[in-house]
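Lay summary. Proteins are chains of building blocks that fold into shapes, and those shapes determine what they do. In this project we predict the shape from the chain. Here is one chain we studied, written as its sequence of building blocks.
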Amino acid sequence: MTLQEYKTTILPLKDKLFRFAFRMLNNRVEAEDVAQEILIKLWNKRADLAEINNIEAWSIRLTKNLSIDKMRSKHRRTEEIKVGFDQVAGDVSPDRAAESSDAINRVRQLMDELPEKQKSVMHLRDIEGLSYQEVSDALEMPLNQVKVYLHRARTRIRQALTAAENFGLEGTV
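And here is the predicted shape, written in a compact code that computers can read:
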């Protein structure tokens, strides 16, 4: 694989790898480290990448495994530095921006409360937009199991949001 092929095939995956690592680790700095390590591994193995059927799924699998290794590590060496507040677009009213932000944060919170496998499947399918087969390949699980986990995750989040909306309560998963 040439440098140009690497730039067009592998580098576009960096944001997706980061988001997946961040979803697993809940730490921006460690997720950046994981994504960078995966990109370096892919560069070092560029000669062997032609043998891989689905580089994206394989990269996500590497990201998952490295993230699990980081979670198991007793020494979490880095801490995230909070830099400030996110900015919202100027054409959105402050009330609308606050509602959207609250809704997004609530869904993120509910996703974080899901079992790890459901959370990973939902993130890859609904946020990253991978196909069911790509999720199956990336997480090394049968296709039917991917569909079951996704259905259960969506159902739990839908129920929690509906309960909160109907009763004015904070729904839990």
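What the prediction tells us: Confidence is low (pLDDT under 50) at residues 78-89.
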